[in-house]
Amino acid sequence: MTITARGAAVFSGVILGGFGVAGLLVTPGGRGELNFLLASWLLPITLFPAAALAAALSPDQPRTIQGQAKVLWPAHLGLVLYALVTGHRWFDASRGTHENLTGLIMIGVIVVHAAVFLPGGGALALFPKTRPAGFQMWLAYPVLLGCWVVGTLLL
After folding, report:
1. For helices 31-40 and 5-25, what crossing angle results, to 10°?
2. Do residues 34 and 74 make contact, with C-beta atoms less than 8 angstroms apart?
3. Would you say residue 130 has pLDDT above 90?
4. CA-CA distance, 43 to 114, in Å (whole number)?
5. Which of 7, 120, 116 is nearest to 71 (CA)?
6. Which pLDDT band, with edges at 50, 70 and 90, does 32 fall under?
7. Alpha carbon of 115 to those of 5, 53, 65, 102, 118: distances in Å?
C-alpha cells in the first residue's frame, strides 16, 4: 500500500480540521480547555509540512506552486479551520489576570511555528526536489498567522 500525495493532504486536513471542530466543543474555562491548549500547538508543525513534502516528492504531481496547491487544498482548508479556532481559544484563555502566562505562551507558540515554517521551508527550498514543499510552507505560515488573528477577532 502506498500513500499518495492527495491522501497525505486529506489526512492532514481531516486531522487539523477535526481538531478545530473539537476546539469548538470544548467548554471555555473548563478542564478540557487546558488540555486542548496544551495539545493544539504541535499539529501544524507536523501535519502540514508532511503533506507538503509528500506532494513535492510525488512524481505524479505537478511541480508548480499552483499544481501543488491543488493537491494540498484539503490540508490548507484544515489548517484554516484549525487556526481560526485555536486563535480564538488561545486569545480567550490569555485574557484574565496578569499572573496568567497563557498570553506569553501563545506568543511562544507563534514563534515556534515561525521557526519551523519559515527556516524549514527555506531548508526545503534549497533542494530542487523538495522546493515545492518549501514554497507551500512559506505560503501556509501567513495563512496560519492570519487565521489566528481573524479567529481572535471573529469567534
Report:
1. 150
2. no
3. yes
4. 14
5. 7
6. confident
7. 25, 17, 22, 20, 6
Please state at what angle helix 102-125 crosses helix 43-57, rounded to 10 degrees. Answer: 10
Higher pLDDT, 93 or 20: 20
Largest CA distance in the chain: 53
Q: Residue 68: CA atoms inside 13 Å, Cβ hemisphere, count?
A: 26
* Closest by CA position to 84, among listed 145, 25, 27: 145
Q: CA distances (Å), 45 to each of 18, 73, 79, in order?
A: 16, 17, 11
Cell 489548517 belongs to 79
The vertex-25 CA angle with 145 and 31, nearest 5°, equals 95
pTM: 0.88
Render pLDDT for 45-63 as a digit per residue (tens, 0 to 9): 899 999 999 999 998 888 8
